[in-house]
Specification:
three-stranded antiparallel beta sheet, 20 helices
Length: about 550
């Protein structure tokens, strides 16, 4: 890492480990100038080191349970590449039904991987809601995996020349129901995310990768197709039976984070189209090429008869790998997943070299992070960064969202202050005395001054009384007044829809207010306060008759 030696106020921050696939495998050593990244050294690390050497000391069947640990998000693809390498080495044919089943499982795994990319990607830019939504659909995919393979993540389902078991009864109908449901879910994602202005501010025109850069860095998968290159191994290599289905390669030409998002969203829709076509056209026949069990199997003529006659657990079939070499690849969700295999006329591979897509794609990370802000660095799976100007735009956007909320609150507050000021002036005029003490211009802040004075005065609760009863009393009086406006049957234009019931409810609800006054007087444990409460209750009751007459006259006037 090249750290500038001319600056003394730089800070080196160790970020990570992050997890593009699962447990922490990515560490970033970031050099900061304030909040700006001026240098970044990614230490990619290794997930389950020794996988290649384990492969060189196991048969293909023995090694299959290991390969799902390469990438927990795309387990079917790791199994597919593991069995496709010796399949091509031995020129083994796969039955048509098995090929269709493989395509279905691969596309379901692609959807599950893209979903678990989408959730953390949105969480990294501040949107937490999609993170919970994606697990809803992802669990449905794992339910399908569990029904077909017996396992939710570590399937061990692919075999050389086919799959381990046929689809169970009712699985196809269940998968078709999932496809119909998932299409509505994708449309929900697009409504929630794609047109969101804050989301667009964060990702549009950010982290741009040009066509030449993508090729020179050896990028693949959505990162390559988002830069304007229509390269998909399902179309290029025509493996399995992808050429029998009608689907399109998803690509964009802008090369920014928004393009990579749109490519992955489009790929999930195309995967559903492929799955639906495969389910509707899946042929009959065997799910595994059973004849290959007799080919290239290492036999021990002295023990073979004994094993197959007297040992209940039969040994797994083994295959001699011919003395040649080849490179096999598949289009995994993150990009090109490849294996370089060298056979040596043995059951164990002489060389087994894995090329993971994430290892290649993450090499461009330092180039995209340098010059950006530190807040962008956790978003490592799909490089999503934004500049200081875009950060200010987001802050201003949030302020404009809050303006419609604070405007009515401010208007109501000013209105209340004006009404209180007017009430004090009118009261002073009626009582033939000089108006209230002025606070602020024309006394409009007098109400705020009165409220502040009450907040900082001494505690008005009686020391020897029932404080709970004393506190509940005023609340009952106020609640009764509010309830009277909530349950009275007003019609259009605030006119009583039922005069008799309205007047009756008004009297009934307003009669609760004296109860609160009596509770406060009684809870004070003071006879003078109690007498004051009785007096206030009597006044409240005596006011009900003229109040009812006023309401009645106004209501009759409005009805006419």
């Amino acid at each position: 890492m090249n750290v500038p030696a001319t600056r003394e106020d730089l800070m080196i921050v160790n970020m990570g480990p992050h997890h593009p696939s699962m447990h922490g495998v990515l560490r970033l050593i970031v050099t900061l100038d304030g909040e700006d990244v001026i240098d970044c050294e990614p230490i990619l690390g290794y997930l389950h080191r020794g996988m290649e050497k384990i492969a060189e000391n196991r048969t293909i069947i023995q090694y299959l349970p290991y390969v799902t640990r390469w990438d927990y998000l795309a387990t079917m693809f790791t199994e597919a590449i593991t069995v496709n390498a010796p399949k091509q080495l031995g020129n083994i044919q796969v039955p048509k039904r098995a090929s269709y089943i493989r395509v279905i499982m691969l596309e379901l795994s692609r959807i599950a991987s893209h979903l678990l990319w989408l959730g953390p990607f949105m969480a990294d830019i501040g949107a937490q809601t999609p993170f919970f939504y994606i697990f809803r659909e992802r669990e449905l995919v794992y339910d399908l995996f569990e029904a077909a393979t017996g396992m939710r993540m570590m399937h061990n389902y692919f075999r050389i020349g086919g799959v381990a078991a046929d689809l169970p009864y009712g699985w196809i109908d269940k998968c078709l129901d999932f496809c119909d449901y998932f299409l509505t879910g994708v449309s929900e994602y697009q409504k929630l995310i794609t047109r969101n202005p804050i989301f667009l501010e964060r990702v549009e025109g950010v982290g741009i990768i040009g066509v030449e850069e993508a090729i020179n860095w050896g990028l693949s998968g959505p990162m390559l197709r988002a830069s304007g290159i229509q390269w998909d191994l399902r179309k290029v290599d025509r493996y399995e039976c992808y050429d029998e289905f009608d689907w399109e390669v998803q690509w964009q030409k802008e090369g920014d984070s928004l393009s990579r998002y749109l490519v992955r969203i489009g790929e999930m829709v195309e995967s559903i189209k492929i799955i639906q076509q495969a389910l509707e056209g899946i042929p009959g026949g065997p799910y595994e090429n059973l004849e290959i069990r007799c080919f290239d199997r290492v036999r021990n003529p002295e023990l073979n008869d004994f094993d197959y006659r007297f040992i209940s657990k039969k040994p797994s079939p083994t295959f001699e790998l011919s003395k040649q070499e080849l490179y096999v690849r598949v289009e995994a969700p993150k990009g090109e997943l490849g294996v370089f295999l060298i056979g040596d006329q043995n059951v164990f591979p002489w060389r087994w070299k894995i090329q993971p897509p994430g290892f290649i794609n993450l090499q461009i990370l330092p180039q995209l992070l340098i010059g950006e802000m530190i807040i962008d660095t956790p978003e490592v799976q799909d490089i999503n960064s934004f500049s200081r100007l875009e950060y200010l735009k987001e802050v201003y956007g949030m302020i404009w969202v809050l303006v419609p909320i604070f405007t009515p609150v401010l208007g109501i507050t000013i209105g209340v202050l004006a009404i209180v000021w007017l009430e004090r002036e009118i009261s002073a005029g009626i009582q033939q005395r000089i108006g209230p003490e002025y606070a602020g211009p024309l006394g409009i802040l007098q109400a705020l001054a009165d409220g502040t004075k009450l907040l900082f005065k001494e505690n008005l609760l009686p020391s020897r009384g029932d404080t709970r009863l004393f506190s509940i009393g005023p609340s009952i009086a106020v609640i009764s007044i509010l309830l009277s406006y909530l349950i009275i049957p007003f019609g259009s234009n605030l006119v009583l829809s039922d005069l008799n019931i309205g007047v009756f409810l008004w009297n009934a609800i307003s009669s609760i207010a004296p109860i609160g006054l009596l509770m406060s007087g009684y809870g004070s444990n003071n006879k003078y306060s109690f007498l004051g409460g009785l007096r206030a209750a009597a006044q409240s009751i005596s006011y009900e008759i003229p109040l009812t007459l006023c309401v009645l006259s106004i209501s009759l006037r409005a009805i006419r």
